[in-house]
Amino acid sequence: AFRTDPVYQGSHWLCVLPKRPPGRSVAAMGAQAMLKTLLYAVNSLLQRRRYRAALAVLKGFRNGAVYGAKIRAPHALVMTLLFKSGSLREKLKAIAQATYTHSRNLAYFVFTYKGLMALQSRLQGKNFQLHSFVAACVGGWLVFGENNHINSQINMYLLSRILFGLSRLAVEKGYIPEPKQDPFPIFAAVTWGIVLWLFEYHRHTLQPSLQSSMTYLYDDSNAWHDISDFLIYNKSNSQK
């Protein structure tokens, strides 16, 4: 954008001074220079190893917030539009609230967990396996200990995963023998058998979102009046 190279003119070398590009004020150029200086200072700070633990905590907070929003927003959108009644404004508010809660809680948990991990490592000089358990327990109690539908879904999601993980770990460590056949079909049969039994006879014990999904699948499919609410709509207009 600027000419700073020397120019030969006759028997003399002339240095052409930078010219301000058209439409660019001195203030704008100064602001751009300050921004570049600031970015350089920030990037230099991010490269310093002495601040790495603290910066990792902040990056964890950022990643928790972003991941929570990415996970919850589409889920809340689908579940709200399918099963919730009310005006469009109320539905959008519910989607935004669920997304915010999930994003905030996950960001707080990651921040707490990584902060406590760094603190324990600094106090004891190195990392131990117990550090992870203690830090996560504290974070789980503080962040996911409140009994609401968002935390309930997250905790139950994790419960199913850790049962799988503990089962595999038990086999790897030799605490239980490795199955000769794939146990997954038995797992699937027992899981679906129990959940449908609970739905049919002890429905109140299931989570509300699961109740809504299963009601749509198994109860609403028992009722219709004509072709409109048999194939096109779930319920006729008179039922809504």
From TrEMBL:
Identification of the protein by name: Peroxisomal membrane protein 4
Organism (species): Chelydra serpentina (Snapping turtle)
InterPro entries named in the record: Pmp4
Membrane-crossing segments per the record: none
A Pfam family recorded for this sequence: Tim17
GO cellular component: peroxisomal membrane
Coiled coil: none
Gene transcribed to yield this protein: PXMP4
